Amino acid sequence: MAKIKFIEADGKEHEVEAQAGQSVMQAAMDNLVPGIVAECGGFASCATCHGYVDEAWLKKLPPPDSAEEGMISCAYHVQSNSRLTCQIKVTPALDGLVVRLPLSQTSE
After folding, report:
1. DSSP string covering 8-20, please?
2. pLDDT 10s digits, 43-76
3. Which of 46, 78, 89, 105 could, after both became Cys, cross-link 35 (CB 3.0–4.6 A)?
């Protein structure tokens, strides 16, 4: 198990437990984290699971592949630390991962 902290654009935090092997997106969906919509079900084809990986964690993740990079380029409010959470697999090494959610994915 790894704990992942999601921070909404308004600062509200959600800490969830994630199973090794599942995606960060699935951990958010399983725990009803607002702002992770996942319209495509995790196939890197919609960017509704876009998040900002905390800078301290970026080097601990494999780089995005070309499909993820292409979809990120279509997302709103892209930053240098933007990732699709559906493409990040949970491992024990990601215990403590912090993902911030863009303003464009607020539920209001």
Report:
1. -TTS-EEEEEE-T
2. 888 999 999 999 999 999 999 999 999 999 999 9
3. 105
